[in-house]
Write a structure and sequence with these properties.
Length: 422
């Protein structure tokens, strides 16, 4: 396609060059004709006009040719300007583009009209785009994780987590989570699991508990009383505990309702009492600083890292689904929230504007390097093909304007001379 376009430009240039040359030859022919015609005012006018046309045509031919090559191959100073000043031309062109075209004002105006947030929204809301993007991000996840040194990542987790969870904000987060759990009724499943675990624990340790209770009764009541009531008391206590656990299985049991009331009261305290919230956060922070918890967090990080690496390597893994869902949610947010789009546009434009100063220098150097590496003959050909046709009009205009100016000047001189004579 480029070759065909260059061929069309070359044909057009040749046509205009031939016509400009024809005008120059025509002027030369008129000069010769004027010398062969009988003398008279008209002949003198034709000779003066044609001579001026020849001079104008030759002068403009010389000027146009000197831009690209040496006229007639002669080593005339200040000719073949473009090939001789190739490096200077590239440097000047690069500076012009960087300083006059690629400016902050022009880029800001251009980017403001593009609405980059809408472009990003279109990308994020298109599953055909987000799926490959999610797979690509998931694919580089193992390399990102691999760059994290295990010991450093573990120490960072152990150091930051107590600080993040040790403030009063933790109480607010826990309170909101508990309130949401209570409102949805999911706390009943937690209580069911606790009752089941407690019953299984009692059954597994029933013999040891019965012996411990009986021993405690003998120690407190003496040998005779302990021998008579120890075993009975132990059985009675365990029976009462099991009976209450059975009652707790019912959703409307009094114990469950009491636990719910206590949880609601604690939630309100965490939400409204700053001292209670601060104490809760401090307790959580201290707990996370414990050596056993630190070891547990390190083990959690190891397991999480291994699971992440294994899942990220799968094109249909959970990591890809999470990233894809996150991208889709971001696209939906941009589609629904004009304020979010405005903030994204402002952030993207601000980030790009911060890169402009360094980009201008790189762009100027890039243009200078490209022009500097061009072959001189290729550079001349590229420029001449694109501006040479217009320059041929300069030759045509110089010839025609010279012809007309020569004729007018001859008439003016003749008029002035006639007045002087008379």
């Amino acid at each position: 396609m480029t070759q065909d376009h260059d061929a069309e430009l070359r044909q057009s240039l040749n046509r205009h060059r031939a016509f400009a040359t024809f005008l120059l030859i025509l002027m030369v022919g008129l000069v010769v004709l004027a010398y062969r015609l009988p003398e008279g005012p008209a002949t003198a006018l034709l000779a003066a006009a044609a001579q001026a046309g020849v001079v104008g045509g030759i002068a403009d031919w010389f000027a146009v040719t000197a831009l690209f090559r040496r006229p007639l191959g002669l080593p005339i100073p200040h000719t073949a300007i473009i090939p001789a000043q190739k490096e200077r031309l590239g440097r000047g062109l690069g500076r012009f583009i960087a300083g006059q075209v690629f400016t902050e004002n022009e880029l800001r105006r251009l980017l403001s009209g593009l609405d980059l947030a809408s472009v990003l929204r279109g990308f994020l809301t298109d599953p055909a785009s987000t799926r490959p993007a999610a797979q690509a991000l998931s694919g580089i996840m193992p390399r990102i994780v691999a760059t994290l040194e295990d010991g450093r990542a573990r120490r960072l987790l152990i150091r930051l987590l107590p600080r993040m969870a040790g403030g009063p904000g933790t109480a607010q987060v826990v309170a909101r989570a508990l309130r949401a759990m209570m409102a949805s009724g999911r706390h009943q499943a937690v209580l069911d699991a606790a009752v089941t675990a407690l019953r299984q624990g009692l059954r597994g340790k029933e013999d040891q508990l019965r012996e411990a209770i009986a021993r405690r009764v003998r120690d407190e009541g003496g040998a005779v009383v302990g021998w008579m009531a120890g075993a009975y008391t132990a059985r009675k206590i365990l029976a009462v505990i099991n009976t209450e656990l059975d009652r707790m299985e019912a959703p409307d049991s009094a114990i469950r309702q009491a636990i719910e009331a206590w949880i609601i009261a604690e939630i309100e305290k965490l939400e409204t009492d700053p001292d209670r919230a601060a104490a809760f956060g401090k307790a959580v922070g201290n707990a996370l600083k414990h050596e056993a918890v630190a070891l547990w967090l390190g083990d959690v990080w190891d397991r999480l890292r291994a699971a992440l690496l294994a899942d990220a390597a799968r094109p249909d893994g959970r990591t890809v689904q999470i990233i894809e869902s996150g991208l889709a949610n971001a696209g939906a947010l941009l589609a629904e929230d004009q304020g979010a789009r405005d903030r994204v546009n402002a952030a993207l434009i601000g980030a790009l504007m911060a890169l402009v100063p360094s980009a201008q220098g790189r762009l100027a150097g890039f243009v200078e390097g490209i022009v500097g590496r061009w072959d001189s003959a290729e550079l001349v050909s590229k420029i001449e093909l694109r501006v040479g046709r217009d320059l041929q009009y300069v030759r045509m205009n110089g010839t025609l304007v010279g012809f007309l100016a020569g004729g007018v000047l001859h008439l003016v001189i003749q008029a002035l001379a006639g007045r002087v004579v008379h």
